[in-house]
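Is calcium ion placement plausible here? Inputs below.
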Amino acid sequence: MAMRVILDTDPGIDDALAILLLGASHEISLEAITVTHGNTTVDKCLANALRLVDLAGLTGVPVARGASSPLVKSLTVAEETHGDGGLGYALLPDARGTVSDKSAVDTIIELVHQYPHEITILAIGPCTNIALAIHKDPTIIALIDRVVVMGGVVHAPGNMTPDAEFNIFCDPEAFDIVLRAGFDLTIVPLDVTYQCLFTKAHVARLSSAKPEIAQFIEDSTRFYMEFHDEYQDIDGCAINDPLAAAILIRPDLVTLRDYYMTVELKGEFTKAKTSVDHYKILKKKANTKVAMEVDVDAFMDFFIERMARL
Ligand code: RIB
Ligand code: CA
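Reply from A.M.:
I modeled the complex. Tokens:
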């Protein structure tokens, strides 16, 4: 039976690639897309998500509007990274569908009660919607099968501050709630996603994909590559979110390690820093499984092969 997934997302260029990957994967039953603030405003992310479901062959999947701002801190967006519209240079036709009449929070709550112990939440943006959902209905915590979060950093450099990763930086209080909830929680940090650098050579390998798919990937990632080059002196672009999606289907792509993870909520210089207790000094039970190694070539081959299925 296909894995029932709720995708919580802030599309966003790499979010868009994750949506394409989910659409290309028969192993996944995408029950809903819930949209959050993050790479751009929630309304721009929502407009992008509504268009992307058509491109991914997911027309009809409910798309619900979520939080427009974090729980505590002020809104952060990353339009220098993803462009003013959120999808770089890519343009998409108008969406066929419309936004759900249910909120993101109610969509999560209702689906979890409809499918107890079957739902995986794949969170590839700030965790605001998830935190709000478990605050509104704490009973869903025990009914959610698994939560996978693209976010955080263990030993690698931060991409938002020297220590903090963007999704966590956008709403550290929300991530702290997720960390403390007691989920079967997998974290996909920058330590592995920044090894997955999608380059022009990978774009050239998309020849088996439909022209509209290849064109979207080329136009969106060209903007993303320009950002990585200018701001981080990186050749290519880190496709963070598709890796988090891929491990639902191909857990063999990464090595997971059990860690007790915390997130800094107060530090003047280290706010939103995620830390793991490597030597178990705190003697606390591990609250996360963290992806610490990745088979980059196998992941890139998998992603490119799946794009040809759309
Ligand atoms: O730090 C990378 C993460 O932040 C990705 O999910 C990207 O889309 C942005 O949301
Ligand atoms: Ca994202």
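Short version: The chain has one domain: 3-307.
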